[in-house]
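Worked example

This section walks through a single chain of length 138. The input is the sequence exactly as stored; nothing has been trimmed or padded.
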Amino acid sequence: MSELPAIPPGTNVVGVGIDQIEVDRIRDSLDKHGDHFLNKIFSPAEQAYCREKADPAPHLAARFAAKEAVSKAFGTGFGKEFGWLDAEVENGDQGQPLLRFSEKGRALLEKKGASEALVSLTHLESIASAIVVLVSSS
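Given that input, the structure is written out below as tokens.
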């Protein structure tokens, strides 16, 4: 098994994660598990934002992908170290997605040597994707 490439010295990128999900997987989870699924994965603010949309599923899927991408950028996956609610996608003043972290998530960000996490989301009718880049200000 080969090793992951090292991030070159002198760069301020300290981690990258990407994820893609079929919107129907989220729609199916909503149909089968309803509020239990929503409350396990999404913050109340994320749920409220997505419920304002004519079709919440693509927006939820993009946020699901963002959380997966964060876990990959951290290198932890989901478990004791990092949970679904330890990262939240908010929208900035101009609608741009922003990542906010719980205390545990913020500690992981600092442990990784990052000061900020950048996120980009996209979705079509059937697929949602997200990429997260962890950056250091030094």
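What to look for: The first strand starts at residue 13 and ends at 22.
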